[in-house]
Amino acid sequence: MENREKQLQELKKEYQDIHMSEEQLLQMKQKISQAKQENSQQGSNAAHSSVSHRRSIARRCGIAAAAAAAALVILPNTSASVAYAMSQVPVLSRLVEVVTFRDYHYEDDRNSADIQVPEVTVAPDTDADTQKSSAVSEQTKKTAEEINTEIQTITDRLIAEFEESKKNEEGYQNMTVKSEILATTDQYFTLKLICFQSAGSGAEWNYYYTIDLSTGKRLQLADLFQEGSDYLTTISDNIKQQMKEQMAADENKIYWLDSDMPEWDFTSITDNTSFYLNQNNEVVVCFNEGDVAPMSMGCPEFVIPNEVLAGIRK
């Protein structure tokens, strides 16, 4: 926080050195003041679940980040010199980003593919020149390399399957791979790799990659809970409850739970079950098509309320 405050002051000084007009300077001050007021109000209302997405982010980032975000809204539109000055000052954390590593396209009368291979990149550590910061940055780079290797292995295999299948003159096939940044907070970064393949019928499956930005390591489900806590049972019981409630409310919702084929029924998640953390710091458990429901149900996700895990989260 001290670094953010110091950087904010340096940024404001640079703006003034560029000789901003009085009107531009007044707009900036008003935006910063407004952000601080909103942040203060958000802190007092933290217990309410209806807080908007924008306020949730501001509350976690703190007053300094909110003020800097307000400056980002107004200042680049007032002066090219100011925009350039801002690009030289790392006020907001942009450590982890995603770029397109490979873009594979193919289309003929029977086959089509649109495969965009993402790559996680790590920016140089400019926030602090400390041993801990440097170690986290290096660990983040290693984690990013591991994730990129996994993604490239998956997409290389899919491209090879597509190339082999299109040699067959019979039938049609379509393959799509894309990615989505699900959540970026001051502590976590999550990338979702979405894969879709059809040849008569279609199937979708997803992969989730979450980096703990405080350690630089790949986040595991067990990392979120106190040692010795039975978080697998707690989460699984809540998922079963949500399944029952959804099926009771909508006859079109079908989950494999207490069915005539118990070998298919959902019993429990494992430490390898996919998950991510949303912007409200809630655990979201993810299943692929066919895992816990008919494939027509798509890829179900279950948001586990924070109050359910309050006694066992770290």
Automatic annotation (TrEMBL):
<feature type="compositionally biased region" description="Polar residues">
    <location>
        <begin position="30"/>
        <end position="50"/>
    </location>
</feature>
<keyword id="KW-0472">Membrane</keyword>
<keyword id="KW-0812">Transmembrane</keyword>
<dbReference type="InterPro" id="IPR037126">
    <property type="entry name" value="PdaC/RsiV-like_sf"/>
</dbReference>
<dbReference type="Pfam" id="PF11738">
    <property type="entry name" value="DUF3298"/>
</dbReference>
<feature type="region of interest" description="Disordered">
    <location>
        <begin position="30"/>
        <end position="53"/>
    </location>
</feature>
<keyword id="KW-1133">Transmembrane helix</keyword>
<dbReference type="InterPro" id="IPR021729">
    <property type="entry name" value="DUF3298"/>
</dbReference>
<protein>
    <submittedName>
        <fullName>RsiV family protein</fullName>
    </submittedName>
</protein>
<feature type="domain" description="DUF3298">
    <location>
        <begin position="222"/>
        <end position="306"/>
    </location>
</feature>
<feature type="region of interest" description="Disordered">
    <location>
        <begin position="124"/>
        <end position="143"/>
    </location>
</feature>
<feature type="transmembrane region" description="Helical">
    <location>
        <begin position="63"/>
        <end position="86"/>
    </location>
</feature>
